[in-house]
User: Fold this.
Amino acid sequence: MRTLDSLPDFPFTVEAKDGAARAGLLQTPRGTVRTPCFMPVGTKGTVKAMTPERLRAVGAQVILANTYHLALRPGSEVVMKLGGLHRFMQWEGPILTDSGGYQVFSLQDSARVTEAGVEFRSVYDGSRQFFTPERVMAEQAALGADLVMCLDQCPPGDAPEAQVAEAVERTTAWARRCKQAHQARNGLGSDGPQMLLGIVQGGVIPRLRQQSAAQLMDIGFPGYAIGGLSVGEDRQAMLETTEFTASLLPEDRLRYFMGIGDPRGVLEVIARGVDLFDCVLPTRTARMGTAFTKCGKINLRNAEHALSDAPLEEDCPCTACKGFSRGAIRHFVLQKEILGLMLLTEHNLVHLIRLVEAARQAILAGRFQAFLKARLNAC
Assistant:
């Protein structure tokens, strides 16, 4: 059996720190990723309302796709036969696929979890499906993503300690099996080398977070995700748990917070030592008619914007702000014109990507703490 260090390498280097906040570089076969980095979510192989060309233009570096959905529709084998996920999505940069664990969590009322894996019904046709660590790794290998995730068990935010402890043990056992399956393929997917990340569970219970991190580090991964948060727990508890968990992880390994995308939340997890993060919030919020700004969210459905000739944000370089008024975008949204969704989606992604890049530059300059205070107190 090959060791972790003999598998394909995705070197990660921390360039600078300011407090716990880090600026780094992740070298992948498809390009260098500057961290901290927000990853737009393309659940079913596409970021809704955005073309690949526009994603590149707004500065997206990594796109996330969903193993659960793609494995069921159109099927990982179909994606592989069509040239792999990069060809399928027309995205030449790095792609991360999640394991499907969160989707199974969202179906927990109808899912049956055992030591072997998770049995559930497909949301598409009701067919019985069984996700094991080995199947999840095979699906991600067929898809051909660059960064891939272990299958984990994500308990709800209000789960009792005994249930969280059981999820930690199962997550560790599944992570070990995922790594073995990954090693058996020599770390390769259908489209090249793959970087496998472990996922730390443990709810908001420090003892269990510490146990999960220690067990996963004993198995050994080139990067670690902080999972099981933003699932119903108190916001302050989430931030404290993020800070505590990040402090447990190796300084030279990539850290990924799964599922945060509001501007304030993104800055707060960067401040606690996180390198990567993703969320559907910016794109989903846009489709609801809401735009991110430095002064908070604005709902374009509100009548106050009907006659506004102002852009969504004065200094924003996105397509919406360069040429369209709030009043026009509001009209598109209310009339359910596709252009309105496209403009707001691009704007929200530009807002978040620019925010993260500004945070990175502040870390490199040693002024992140002042930057954070100014942005959190803006307007």
Q: What stands out?
A: The two ends are 57 Å apart (CA to CA).
